[in-house]
Amino acid sequence: EYRLKVASSQEEVMVGTVDAMRVELSGLTAGTNYLLSVRTMCNDILYSDWVDFAFRTVPAPPALPYVVGFEDEAENENWTLVNGDQMNKLVIGSDEEAVLSGNKSLYVSHDGSDYFYYFNYASDVHAYRPIYLEAGEYLSEFSWKCAGEDTRDYGRLYLVPVVRDIRAGEYIATQAYVPEGCIAIDGGSHLNESADWVREVVEFSVKEAQFYNLVVSWHNNNSGGATPPFAIDDIVIREATCLPVDSLHIVAVDDRSVVVGVKNEETINVEWEIKNDKSEVLNSQLSILNSQLSIDGLAPEAEYEFRVRVVCEEGDTSQWRSITFKTEKRAV
What we know:
The chain is an all-beta fold. 1% of the residues lie in helices and 47% in strands. The protein contains 1 helix and 23 strands. Strands 5, 7, 8, 10, 13 and 15 form a 6-stranded antiparallel beta sheet that branches. A 5-stranded antiparallel beta sheet has the order 6-9-14-11-12, with no helix packed on it. Strands 18, 19, 21, 22 and 23 form a 5-stranded antiparallel beta sheet that branches. The longest helix has 4 residues. 25% of the residues are buried.
């Protein structure tokens, strides 16, 4: 015999008996805590004691763009913190040093509140939120900071198919690797060695439409490190409606000019700029298809960065693609 109640209200939503080792409970509400009570019916008058099982249904996937700054308590309930008995934990908290905007963020803490970690206690902890993504091109945007320690103490942001278990004390992504089926959305490597806030914009592709867990992970070993530990705020997951050019390459360069090859399969409008380490030199906007851009008026023996982005329509541009080069010595 079983009884199912909503944990918060104790409202009984389901009662039944079953002559089997399992029962399917359908029609439940997403993102809700339930209490399931079960007892054995030995005969018509003899019953075992009730045994209770608490569980929470998976939250409904959010609509895109998904924007979270950890300010909304209802949305925070949709994040699962997997800390177990690890010394250093991920928390949604309000330590001012760990917050970029608003009053809260997701960060590492040794005591559930303070933005600090113990270097000498190895920890692998995670926080995740289910999300559904169709096959296609996407952008992740987020702000983070972490001093940590080279490849030993760091944060990661990535997608994991929901069928994969996420456990405290076990890592999924290493400093520069995510397992097959997972998708790195943090640039592909560990996030650390910056005690100041960094804003990232990362392009990523989803090959197969499915439910994923959006995962934030923290790993530290048991020797050395530096504060502050990992903190992340203002995460955005959105479709990439305006895609960048396929590739850039330097065709030719001399002491005063450069020819840059821009590869793209369709005719596009692009905006480009070229800079040296002192100031912006040139910029323009034009329509191209697998074109070569010839840029004159450069200084000899100078290092430059050429950047180009696609302009799909007013207010909708792709991420920048860039390439660096150095002009040759002045021609004699």
